[in-house]
């Protein structure tokens, strides 16, 4: 479902070249829960941003579901993200002025193919799944870190994306809340065959992953598939 060919991302910092990704070939199947691991600065976030169509590679190709994403126009990419991809970041990235319910419903409201009654029902169902139905009217500031991340996950999956991308979603959480997030990922992977690509640098997270893609200095050192 995801395949890359000789992916490179080079940042030019003055006259210094940073090879954030240096010839990456990976293959991820539908329904896999894959961990991207490696030391700080090894290119994990850069890879996730490329795969999630949030940034463009310097060279190389990315195929998602057979579509060569580099051939999409900006508008097509936006639609591809809205209809096929979901994202979770370490800082939650919720809209502080909106309630839990509104934050989760937001991506569904943007879709032309979702009626109001449909996205309301989807939102309530997902809030039940993450155990935050009773907090639906609360604002971000009234929630704990773990609750905020659960809301962010609900928002990421409300449109039932083909692929869920998460960049160190547990980075700001304690062990108990990290487990809660990982168990939630495990559950949606099992129950909905949700493909998940998650960046982590915590060694103990690896017990949750089907496979680990290991990066070092922008290169795959293990598990590219
Ligand atoms: N926008 C940027 N401009 C310049 N260098 C960057 C930028 N983003 C990342 N880098 C560099 O690319 C390398 C990989 O970064 P990153 O993908 O964030 O690593 P990781 O997520 O594994 O910690 C690092 O050397 C980082 O400093
Ligand atoms: Mg990173």
What can you tell me about this protein's structure?
The strands form two sheets. The chain has a six-stranded mixed β-sheet with strand order 7-8-9-4-10-11, sandwiched between helices. Strands 1, 2, 3, 5 and 6 form a five-stranded antiparallel β-sheet that branches. The chain has a domain of about 160 residues: Rossmann fold (3-Layer(aba) Sandwich). The N and C termini lie close together (about 10 Å). The model has no long low-confidence stretch (mean pLDDT about 95). Helix 4 packs across helix 5. It is α/β, with parallel strands linked by helices and about 220 residues long. Strand 10 and strand 11 form a beta hairpin. Adenosine-5'-diphosphate binds next to strand 1, strand 2 and helix 1.
Helical/strand content category: alpha/beta
* Largest β sheet strand count, sense and barrel closure: 6 strands, mixed
Task: Give the spatial strand order of the biggest sheet.
Answer: 7-8-9-4-10-11
- CATH class annotation of the domain at 2-95 and 161-222: Alpha Beta
- Percent of residues in helices comes to 25-40%
Radius of gyration: 17 Å
- Taken as a percent bin, the fraction of beta residues is 25-35%
* Count of discrete alpha- or pi-helical segments spanning 4 or more residues: 6
CATH topology-level name of the domain at 2-95 and 161-222: Rossmann fold
Topology pattern, helix = H, strand = E: EEEEHEEHEHHHEHEEE
- Basic shape: globular
Query: In the CATH classification, which architecture of the domain at 2-95 and 161-222 applies?
Result: 3-Layer(aba) Sandwich
Termini separation: 12 Å
Task: Identify the bound ligands.
Answer: adenosine-5'-diphosphate, magnesium ion
């Amino acid at each position: 479902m995801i395949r890359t060919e000789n992916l490179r991302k080079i940042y030019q910092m003055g006259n210094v070249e940073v090879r954030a990704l240096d010839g990456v070939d990976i293959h991820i199947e539908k329904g896999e829960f894959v961990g991207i691991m490696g030391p700080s600065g090894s290119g994990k976030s850069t890879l996730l941003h490329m795969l999630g169509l949030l940034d463009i590679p310097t060279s190389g190709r990315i195929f998602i579901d057979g579509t060569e994403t580099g051939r999409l126009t900006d508008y097509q990419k936006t639609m591809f993200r809205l209809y096929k991809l979901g994202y979770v970041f370490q800082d939650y990235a919720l809209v502080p002025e909106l309630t839990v319910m509104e934050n989760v419903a937001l991506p569904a409201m943007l879709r032309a193919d979702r009626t109001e009654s449909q996205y309301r029902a989807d939102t309530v169902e997902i809030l039940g799944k993450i155990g935050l139905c009773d907090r639906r009217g609360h604002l971000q500031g009234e929630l704990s870190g773990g609750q905020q991340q659960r809301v962010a996950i609900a928002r990421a999956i409300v449109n039932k994306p083909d692929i869920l991308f998460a960049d160190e979603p547990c980075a700001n959480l304690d062990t108990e809340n990290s487990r809660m997030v990982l168990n939630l990922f495990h559950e949606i992977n099992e129950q909905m065959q949700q493909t998940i690509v998650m960046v982590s640098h915590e060694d103990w997270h690896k017990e949750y992953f089907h496979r680990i893609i290991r990066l070092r200095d922008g290169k795959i050192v293990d598990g590219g598939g």
